[in-house]
């Protein structure tokens, strides 16, 4: 057995000799397994609710009797959001995002019914999930096991003894790192279950990426802990530095960064947003106000197009044309305001990425939620798909009025087949390969942290030699 | 005795590490106050903008009636076209505890079609990204981070002397061990309490309700005292300062980080609220059922209200009025079930939070500040009552086709939020803390009596 393995085995034996460590390790693993099981149950319950709701809403839509298509447009449909691909592991932003979006005439609504609105118990740090265990709790266990790895040897002046036995510095430090990595691997190993339960190629790809990201993150932590342990004068100061680092990086910096991001790119106030939208909508045709000058202008243009002088001579219904003009105007307005919201969110994301330079937790959180399909990017994809469907549906219904309601306009009644012919809104979340580019900055930031941690541990080892601790 | 206290204080403040940690906590307190002020301003400006817009529209409508100018679909002064805001003013203690208050809608537009389930339509425009990372407010800093400062100050209360085998010497100089611990503890807890006191005073100066500040300060100080006694107890019992720190950190991890998360998860599993998606489907079913029945509903409504004889039986506003009321009536059992399950979940959360004092105190402080769910629930209830009054006020005019005069428009009802009365949660929190402190003191006293500290 080489000296790496020997050192690692000896360290591991020492770590696991302590009953408290064994209990902590088992507790953490049990917690991890529990959160995975609970997450899985929650995801399948939610998915089943979504499937039922989609079916029921379509059934309701099809059961509409003979009606005016514009009444049907106002009745609209609901776009229910399926859960993220592997939200059982990391719910990400899911609790703060809406789950159902009403697709109605004239309005691009926001997704409503957020889980956070139903939550009554306050959360001090974060909701419990498998990602939470690996992001927050696993580092603490690694800190408690690893803070003294080198610092204690230095304190006890046992380094000379170890090296006198013929071990090289590299092998000795490598063995220490290996021992901590074995504990990290034990904590990480259950996450491989994600790959085993993946239902399709995309879920498998996401699971691989997620498991890989957490493996990299835990290894980075091991290197960082080793570096601090080598640098610290005493084991106590190593523990203090590492715990302070954990509190600052995991608890304080993300919250400070969130506030800074909010200041740099303020989120829209809902009330103000909709006041602005309504004001902008009033600047165009709405299809319900024949006295409006813009609608009169549209009528003139339509009459000119068909070469007639009176509305009743038109071969089509002007009501349908006016309604669609109102939709077209509304689409421009909504594109403008929703783009502003997305731009603010993109700026916030940039600020948070900058903050990742101080805290790897932020980079990991972003990457983890992105891969799990539970971040804002995936939500925006769902909202966009619903909006495309809404616009197509409105155009279809307005065209139906235009073609068939001549002379009757809003009194026109269309048959049930008109609604039954409309396609079902079936949302498919994007595959990781379609959306993966968005997460490259987070992945690079995490990679940067890994490199920094490795360099820091190498430098700390060299310093050990330089200061004469080993000679 | 004074010399020992001043020696202790000078020793503490001489330590570079302690000075740095204290500086960090002072900065955190200042930042948290700034966050609170920002949230207060955001809330106040959101409410003021909603109020101003409602008044602007009302004034504009008065002008339209005077000039007989039609804007949009409805004739000037049409009862169904009038609306008013119902806004929740900033909570009295939002600077101290912002919580997730701004995640909840603080304004609703009330008109004759307002329904309970659509009171807050389209209010989800806030950033989920920053909301998910949480708010660093003063209450969070006090409940989550200040215990760490206490741990840093108390973990070596006695263990350091024992590590260095100086305990006997110290006892010979300082008299009784109990007295020595009490003096040391008092000095060490003084620093965090001082920072919190300055923070609370600053919050009062920034406009937070004085009563809220005093109660908040009392609860937080007692919480810090509790941690100090726990710190002392562990420090006396632990074999070394290092193991004392490790035990205290594990306690912090368990009570502050882990237990609240476990309780939240357990509550959601034990008393889940009905799926909101099924609520949507129930609403859609009701609406579908009512689609072909508006004429019938209108007839029934007018038969039930003979005072409206001569009412116009046509028009969107009237059919919408009756169908919205019918929808609300048919959805009432679904909504009631949701409210009941939420209350059950709340009861479970309250019961289980006794296991995790930080969780109980956090929710008590948020309640005290008015940023927990209960004040918002009171707002929803009052906004619905206002919507009912609004409908009642305009109903006859709506059915009898009577337009509102400028004077009637000016005197339309305005919403005013009545602060709910406190149900004594502050007292419960204080009593709970006293019991815990007494328990910790008792255990400390027994440990000191029984131990053979040398």
Structural write-up:
The complex is a heterodimer of chains A (471) and B (454). Chain A is an all-alpha fold and 471 residues long. Helices cover 69% and strands 2% of the residues of chain A. Chain A has a two-stranded antiparallel sheet with strand order 1-2. The mean pLDDT of chain A is 89. Chain B has 16 helices and two strands. The mean pLDDT of chain B is 87. In chain B, strands 1-2 form a two-stranded antiparallel sheet. With 454 residues, chain B is mostly helical. The chains are: A mainly alpha (471), B mainly alpha (454). At the A-B interface, helix 2, helix 4, helix 5, helix 11 and helix 12 of A face helix 2, helix 3, helix 4, helix 9 and helix 10 of B.
Strand order of the largest sheet of chain B: 1-2
Question: Secondary-structure element sequence of chain A?
Answer: HHHEEHHHHHHHHHHHHHHHH
In terms of quaternary structure, the protein is: heterodimer
* Helix/strand class of chain A: mainly alpha
Query: Approximately how much beta-strand content do the residues of chain A carry?
Result: under 5%
Shape of chain B: elongated
Poorly predicted tracts of residues of chain A: none
User: Mean pLDDT score of chain B, rounded?
Assistant: 87
Question: Mean of residue pLDDT of chain A?
Answer: 89
Q: Structural class given helices, strands, pairing of chain B? A: mainly alpha
- Rg of chain B (CA only): 29 Å
What is the C-alpha radius of gyration of chain A, as a whole number of Å?
30 Å
Q: What's the topology here?
A:
The complex is a heterodimer of chains A (471) and B (454).
Chain A: H1 3-17, H2 19-62, H3 69-75, E1 77-80, E2 100-103, H4 115-118, H5 130-146, H6 151-156, H7 159-164, H8 169-188, H9 193-197, H10 201-231, H11 235-264, H12 270-281, H13 293-306, H14 318-355, H15 360-372, H16 376-404, H17 417-420, H18 432-435, H19 440-466
Antiparallel strand pairs in A: 1-2
Chain B: H1 2-14, H2 16-67, E1 84-87, E2 107-110, H3 128-133, H4 138-154, H5 159-163, H6 167-174, H7 177-205, H8 210-237, H9 241-270, H10 276-291, H11 294-304, H12 316-352, H13 357-369, H14 373-399, H15 406-410, H16 425-450
Antiparallel strand pairs in B: 1-2
